[in-house]
Amino acid sequence: MATSKIACDHCGAPLKYSSGEIIVTCPYCGYTVVIDIGKPFTLEHSLLPSNFNEKKAIDRVKSWMKHSFIAPGDLARRAKFTDVRLQFLPFWVIPITATSTYRGLFERTGSRIEKKGSIKKKYNWVIFGGGRGTEFPTREFDIPLEGKMPYDFRKIPEGAKVFNSEIGEKEAVDMAKQQIKNDHRFLAKEDADRIIDLETEFKVGKAYYLHAPVWIMRYKYKGKNYQVFLDGCEGEVVKGDIPTDSGFF
Questions:
Q1: pLDDT given for residue 1 in this prediction
Q2: Cβ-based neighbours of 219, under 8 Å, separated by 6 or more
């Protein structure tokens, strides 16, 4: 991926960014800019603090291994951590109220009954802003939003990498709307086997941009490689590989 460089408008330091990145944060002063329009970022930019160093992060994962009922009994003792990295990943948080009305058919009993209903829910919907080719289990990540603070580059631990976003606010809101509509369709199918029509109205609040600490940890067990995502704020495993017959936990 090609890397470009401009001078930070705030401190003058070199501001590096990769092709496709839209919102870039200066690692030296925390100044954030929207690259494609060359203007300062004016929305709220928040940060979740990192509360775990490398040793504590590994200890948390080992404890998770010990308490997993499907993990081998010697996993925590024999797992060899080969790559442990703290990364501050970019997310969009979108306060949104969604109201869906649907019409469908209930057919599971053999008869055909028309069903109508509505679903109304309020969300702080989270969209991962990282690389489009990057996979992150966003839906499994219960971000502790109550712990957020204004973004402060001084709170980034030495050696941690801060990632920029390839997704802007408008695209994040559009993605949230589509994902919520898909979820409401899934919920509607609890009432109707076949959905004929579903319409969703949205009331969108003020979105904000958030960097959250995530430990991305790779370990080896009996010659095979596995990966774990650990929330660096509260120490909860977001998602992780467990060496069992099924392969993934």
A1: 54
A2: 61, 79, 80, 81, 82, 225, 226, 227, 228
Beta carbons within 10 angstroms of residue 208's beta carbon: 18
pTM, 2 dp: 0.90
Could you give the C-alpha distances from 158 to 34, 86, 87, 145, 162, in angstroms and in order?
25, 10, 11, 23, 11
pLDDT of the residue at 18: 85
Please name every residue paired with 45 in a beta bridge, in sequence order, or none if there are none.
Answer: 209
Provide the residue type at 52 as one letter.
F
Q: How is residue 39 written in tokens? A: 């203007």
- Residue 68: burial class (beta carbons within 10 Å; 0-12, 13-18, 19+): middle
Strand pairing report for 23-25 and 32-34: antiparallel
Measured torsion, CA atoms of residues 28, 33, 39, 41, in degrees rounded to the nearest 10 = -110
- Pairing between strand 113-128 and 208-221? unpaired
Measure the CA–CA gap between 108 and 114, rounded to whole angstroms. Answer: 12
Amino acid at 14: P
Pair 77, 58: CB distance under 8 Å: no
Three-state secondary structure call for residue 182:
helix
What is the C-alpha to C-alpha distance for residues 8 and 53, in angstroms, rounded to an integer? 29
